[in-house]
């Protein structure tokens, strides 16, 4: 029977991880997959996570199942982190998921359950796995223009025009902050226009927020999500703890469904529980428990926030160093956008051929669409990258 299966296309980001591993050059630089690295190239376990793990080892008394939606303490802590007091807590249904990808997948499943005809409007470009999951699930996608190849900023008028074509029963997928793959983000007045468009069309927003704390700070990065959630009748929010808690392999995420009242919440919560049960039953708990412990303990929380801020400011300084190095070497300001972008990624806006040349000639790995992971750099590799970019003629 299985001989009928078709070869699946390899995930571009994960393929790159493998190619990097296999490259024997010791000068190689990995700017591919979105994993944070410190100045010595390690992906550290955050201090607060280590401390919480130590505590958990001593105090955990059972590994029995949690609930289908995970530990309610985790939902509370994360709803609070993402939404603050933007909406009443009793309007938010939430379920823990295996990572942010799990939350995205469950969100799409909820959309399909509610309206099998729903179209999902996706930014062009978006995280490739959004497209891959939607395709796998047979959900219709409609790309909306997002990135301006000239300015390397958001093509906002075009975006607004395109999302304006969504209808009630459709979904507009938005990146809450730190747009992946471009690094180009909306400002708050543009977010207000997006909200006005959603209010006009009646389309349901779904927000993917995987990098809270990596852009302008924890609250600033959640501001758009809070604005949207508090301005429309319903929305979905897929949050990830992989990056901001550095617990990638623990698969820790939360899907939230915000509605208008407690009775809609009950229906949403039942659906989230049901979908978890169908797809994987109980969500993983270890990472969620660590996050809950950190967010509900003043001193662990303060230490986590301090370390997250160190990571954020390190990425910002790498952005600035790269932009100024490129300005010096190229004699032009055309790379200034790198310092304006936020989050882990920036899209250089060059061709796949140039990206391949960087890999072949210089051992520099970035995704074929010219997305580079800023956190893969350090102060010694920034000048090497800048020189390579100018040498290949980007
Ligand atoms: C990325 O975009 O590199 C990350 O979100 C990791 C992944 O799963 O693709």
Automatic annotation (TrEMBL):
Cofactor: pyridoxal 5'-phosphate
Entry keywords, A to Z: Aminotransferase, Coiled coil, Pyridoxal phosphate, Transferase
Single GO MF annotation: L-aspartate:2-oxoglutarate aminotransferase activity
Entry-linked CDD domains: AAT_like (cd00609)
InterPro entries noted in UniProt: Aminotransferase_I/II_large, Asp_trans, PyrdxlP-dep_Trfase, PyrdxlP-dep_Trfase_major, PyrdxlP-dep_Trfase_small
Gene Ontology biological-process entries: L-phenylalanine biosynthetic process from chorismate via phenylpyruvate
Superkingdom classification of source: Bacteria
Aminotransferase class I/classII large domain location: 27-389
GO cellular component: cytosol
Pfam families registered for this protein in UniProt: Aminotran_1_2
Coiled-coil region: 301-328
Record family assignment: Belongs to the class-I pyridoxal-phosphate-dependent aminotransferase family.
Subunit annotation: Homodimer.
PANTHER family assigned to the protein according to its UniProt record, in alphabetical order: ASPARTATE AMINOTRANSFERASE, ASPARTATE AMINOTRANSFERASE, MITOCHONDRIAL
Protein's name according to its UniProt entry: Aspartate/tyrosine/aromatic aminotransferase
Upper taxonomic lineage: Bacteria, Pseudomonadati, Pseudomonadota, Alphaproteobacteria, Rhodobacterales
């Amino acid at each position: 029977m299985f001989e009928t299966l078709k070869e699946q296309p390899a995930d571009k980001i994960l393929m790159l991880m493998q190619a990097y591993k296999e490259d024997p050059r010791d000068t190689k630089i990995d700017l591919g997959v979105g994993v944070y690295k410190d100045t010595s190239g390690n992906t550290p376990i955050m201090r607060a996570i280590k401390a919480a793990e130590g505590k958990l080892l001593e105090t955990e008394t059972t590994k029995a199942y949690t609930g289908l939606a995970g530990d309610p303490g985790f939902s509370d802590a994360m709803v609070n982190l993402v939404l603050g007091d933007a909406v009443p807590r009793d309007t938010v249904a939430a379920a823990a998921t295996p990572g942010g990808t799990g939350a995205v997948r469950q969100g799409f499943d909820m959309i399909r359950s509610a309206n099998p005809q729903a179209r999902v409007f996706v930014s062009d470009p978006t995280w490739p796995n959004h497209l891959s999951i939607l395709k796998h699930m047979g959900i219709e996608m409609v790309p909306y223009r997002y990135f301006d190849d000239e300015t390397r900023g958001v093509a906002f008028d075009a975006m607004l025009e395109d999302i304006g074509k969504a209808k009630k029963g459709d979904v507009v997928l938005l990146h809450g902050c730190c747009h992946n793959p471009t690094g180009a983000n909306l400002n708050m007045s543009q977010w207000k226009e997006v909200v006005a468009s959603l209010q006009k069309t009646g389309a349901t927003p779904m927000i993917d927020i995987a990098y809270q704390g990596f852009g302008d700070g924890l609250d600033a990065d959640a501001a758009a999500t809070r604005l949207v959630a508090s301005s429309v009748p319903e929305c979905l929010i897929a949050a990830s703890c992989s990056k901001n808690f550095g617990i990638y392999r623990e698969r820790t995420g939360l899907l939230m469904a915000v509605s208008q009242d407690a009775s809609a919440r009950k229906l949403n919560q039942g659906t989230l529980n049901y979908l978890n049960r169908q797809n994987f039953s109980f969500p993983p708990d270890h990472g969620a428990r660590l996050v809950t412990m950190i967010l509900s303990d003043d001193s662990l929380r303060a230490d986590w926030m301090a370390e997250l801020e160190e990571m954020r400011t390190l990425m910002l300084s790498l952005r600035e160093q790269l932009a100024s190095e490129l300005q010096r070497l190229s004699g032009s300001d055309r790379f200034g956008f790198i310092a304006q972008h936020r989050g882990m990624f920036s899209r250089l806006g060059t061709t796949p051929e140039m990206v391949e040349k960087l890999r072949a000639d210089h051992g520099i790995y970035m995704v074929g669409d010219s997305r580079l992971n800023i956190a893969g750099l350090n102060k010694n590799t920034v000048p090497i990258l800048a020189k390579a970019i100018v040498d290949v003629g980007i």
